[in-house]
Specification:
single chain; 380 residues; globular; disordered N terminus; mainly beta; Tachylectin-2, Chain A
């Protein structure tokens, strides 16, 4: 039997009391940080997961993801004044057995990108919605880009940029994924920019699991974020490519980027020997600086810079009653070096964020007993 002296017992009692106080302060601080910013959440049962959100103005938010049975890509228009008021756009026939991952808008036309299954193969899918008139523009990507996925679409300086990956069969029958970047002009003509990407997007000697995951417009050009089996990749396009590295970056992927007065911020995941860790890089005056976050396991899924504030959403493990599962932490701050917890929830996963008027809308899915599409409306 282990026995303790009175002094030891008194010391242990004090330690227990201190731990209880610390736990209370920690809980209370995070409870206040989660509630004081007017955060409202709703689920969209018609969607299993929401992958993308885009604010149109006039309190209208477009969301897109995957749902239905059999599953397919779908999109909805949500009224942010009353988020229970939403309308389905009925795009499922184009994205059969697939998903919608991205939404672009040029002021008159919505462009949806994702994938679908045709004949047992995964195909790129691009659909335009012009005032309710739907058009399948997948053919404009060209036959070389027929197989694959579209991860990001954006409108910039009078043209569309469409990014993702394309699946190519080699002469030996094996296949590789290569990055895809296509430029579509307002007159409908297209140019395949993939061969002009900086060399570190397709490293010599391997790395043939490549993709472009995010296209972010800015006053200086469009940030192009991606990755392959060798390194994360980032560049900026404004008619020509601005190389941000000759060798690429650490082994990992960038999945989102944002422009700030301090430079470009690219975020994603870093491939460690036995896990993924959050990955944040700031590009400033020709240098790249890794930003350390207070979380060492997980992913950064999205980044926004607005009115002097950085906002990052993370997918990190939480302890449940029986095991670990992924949940969400949203960090916020005036400096990347001094980010604080704005919101966290072990039963939700955030995939994307959008600036929506005076709010940030974060979208993803619930990760509890049921999996449903999720929208968070956060007043900053």
């Amino acid at each position: 039997m282990i026995t303790f002296s009175k002094r030891t017992k008194a010391g242990l009692s004090i330690i227990v009391l201190i731990l209880i106080v610390i736990s209370f302060i920690y809980y209370y601080t995070n409870f206040i940080s989660n509630q004081s910013n007017d955060i409202k959440a709703i689920t969209i049962p018609e969607l299993e997961k929401v992958f993308s959100a885009l604010y149109l103005g006039n309190n209208q938010l477009i969301i897109a993801g995957i749902g239905g049975n059999p599953s397919h890509g779908e999109a909805f228009v949500v009224n942010l004044n009353n988020m229970m008021n939403y309308t389905q756009l009925k795009l499922g026939r184009f994205f059969q057995n697939g998903s919608i991952y991205t939404i672009g808008y040029n002021g008159t036309t919505l462009m949806f990108g994702g994938d679908n299954y045709i004949g047992g193969n995964l195909h790129t899918c691009l659909v335009a919605d012009n005032g309710g008139s739907l058009h399948n523009f997948s053919y404009k990507l060209g036959s070389d880009n027929s197989l694959g996925q579209i991860w990001s679409v954006t409108w910039y300086n009078g043209y569309w940029l469409i990014g993702g990956n394309t699946f190519i069969y080699l002469s030996n029958g094996e296949g590789v994924l290569l990055p895809m970047l296509v430029k579509e002009f307002s007159n409908g003509s297209t140019v395949n920019l993939s061969p002009n990407l900086p060399s570190y997007f397709t490293p010599v000697g391997g790395g043939f699991i490549d993709s472009i995951y995010d296209l972010s417009p800015s006053p200086t050009g469009v940030g192009i974020a991606g990755g392959n089996t060798f390194n994360a990749t980032f560049a900026v396009y404004n008619g020509t490519f601005q190389n941000f590295s000759v060798k690429g970056y650490d082994e990992g992927s960038f999945v989102s980027s944002a422009f700030s007065p301090q430079g470009w911020i690219a975020v994603g995941e870093l491939y460690e020997s036995d896990h993924f860790s959050p990955y944040v890089v700031l590009f400033h005056n020709g240098t790249s600086n890794n930003i350390t976050l207070p979380y060492h396991v997980g992913f950064v899924t999205s980044v926004i810079y607005i009115n002097g504030t950085y906002i990052l959403s993370l997918k990190v493990p939480f302890t449940s009653s029986s095991s670990l599962k992924y949940g969400t932490v949203i960090l916020c701050g005036k400096s990347l070096q001094e980010l604080k917890v704005l919101y966290k929830n072990g039963n939700q996963v955030i995939e994307d964020m959008s600036v929506s008027g005076n709010y940030i809308t974060a979208v993803g899915y619930t990760n509890d007993t049921t999996v449903e599409g999720l929208i968070l409306k956060i007043h900053i």
